[in-house]
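Box 4.2: Ligand-aware structure prediction
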Amino acid sequence: MTRLGVLLSGRGSNFLAIAEAINNGSLHGCEIVLVLSNKADAPGIDAARQLGLEAYAIPSKGIPRQEHDRQMIAALQEAKVDLICLAGYMRIISPEFIAAFPNRILNIHPSLLPAFPRLDAQGQALEYGAKVAGCTVHFVDEQVDHGTIIVQRTVPVLDDDTHDTLAARILEQEHQAYAEALQRVLSGEYRIEGRRYIRK
Ligand code: GRF
């Protein structure tokens, strides 16, 4: 059983999609052993507790990044986490954090990377006039929204889309993409060549 740690800062719908995929058996070979947030009031933490999972906040406000990351690493190591899912974790993580879990940290981003990295990817796609948008699950490296891509899913951008309708269409795909990417990584049936994730 691979021990998953999930990091979030907000509502936690991607976390819930992963938990649901584990519960209904579509994602197997792993269990969520810890849900951590940098925000005490993240709804995702309450949702995790309601599912009976260990979940708590290590507040980041006013704490230097390295110090906060050290606390996060310690908590994850204490829980013997093998694989980390960033699921709306709104913090850039330090090189020290990445080095503690090499190729063991995944992130989901609501755009087809390398287009529209960083904040409000959906708004960026809409404003740019993109006709296709989507989401990316990738390994985390030392650059923001940059590491090896595991799964991408696309959605159309419609003429009458608003920020909210486009974000909702992408989110639906995010929920499927995260479980799919996790299952692929858990299978171990891949190799990484340069930037490329290649299935065996
Ligand atoms: C998602 O759009 C994810 O791609 C981005 O942050 C958002 C988190 O949403 N990184 P949720 O908390 O999982 O609902």
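In the box above, the bound molecule is 5-O-phosphono-beta-D-ribofuranosylamine. The chain has a mean pLDDT of 98.
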